[in-house]
Each structure stands twice: as structure tokens, then as C-alpha cells.
Amino acid sequence: MQIDAVDQRIIALLVADARASYADIGTRVSLSAPAVKRRVDRLRATGVIRGFTAVVDPAAVGWTTEAFVELFCAGRTTPAQIGAAARRHPEVVGAYTVSGEADALVHLRAADISHLEEALERLRAEGFVTSTRSTIVLSRLVESPGVGPSS
């Protein structure tokens, strides 16, 4: 599917505010509301836009402790196995295969250090994990919800 500059701007505006009206977006991209709706419908139908969601402030729900954990895995552990294991842990907010020494990088979020340690121990108990290396986040400096410029 071809995505033009207008589609990219619509996507960026929806990432910034998924509740923006088609009329508001249309004003920003110089299209009518029905034209924006047609484009959004096409982007959804082709899988470019997979859904709309609420972005929750972790501090508001009390999960303010986070860490990035490098996973080192046994033998021929597949990305699918790592992904399935990551989905079993509610503290996992992201999991990625990576280049370098580690096989994967997992982003954990928890209520406090004790909760984080509990989550880490459960993750380490996955049968394919041979070792981990953790880095605790001290502060968030930049956080971006999506892709591209929103202007």
C-alpha cells in the first residue's frame, strides 16, 4: 500500500490524539472530514492502523519502577518462544530480539523494587533463560507514542 505525506500526517495526528475528530484532523491536513474518514478507513483496512488505545500514565496506577532486562537464552530459543513467555508476565511492557550479546531485551514495569524483583525472578524461571542482566530506569527523558512529525 502507498502511504503519502497526507497519510503520514494523519497517522501522526492520530498517534498524538486518537480522539481527534475527522474535522479537526482535516483542518490540519487541508482535507474535508469525509476525506479524512475515507483515508483512516483505508489505513485501518490495510493494517497500517491496527487500532486505537488509551495511553495510561504508569505513575497514576502506581507502577513507577521499571527496568530493561537483557535475556540470555539456551540453544535454539526462538523469538516466538521469547514472545510467548513475555506475554505471560503482566509486568512486561515490551520485548524485543536484539543484536549483540543478549538474545532479547525485555522492558519491565512494576510497583516497586520488591515487585520488580518478583517479576524478574519469574522471568528468570522461564526454562530457556540461562542468565539476565538488568538496568533499572532512574528517569524518563524522552517518550514518544508513535511515528513521524505531527505538523
TrEMBL record:
BP-aspect Gene Ontology terms:
response to amino acid
For this UniProt record, the keywords arranged alphabetically read as follows:
DNA-binding, Transcription, Transcription regulation
Q: Please report the stretch or stretches of sequence annotated as the HTH asnC-type domain.
A: 3-64
Record's PROSITE patterns? Answer: HTH_ASNC_2 (PS50956)
A single Gene Ontology CC annotation of this entry is: cytosol
Q: Transcription as a keyword?
A: yes
Extract the coiled-coil ranges from the record: none
- Extract one GO molecular function annotation from the record: sequence-specific DNA binding
Q: Name one Pfam family in it.
A: HTH_AsnC-type
The UniProt record lists the keyword Transcription regulation: yes
Q: Which PANTHER family match?
A: LEUCINE-RESPONSIVE REGULATORY PROTEIN, TRANSCRIPTIONAL REGULATORY PROTEIN (PROBABLY ASNC-FAMILY)-RELATED
Q: What is this protein called?
A: Transcriptional regulator, AsnC family
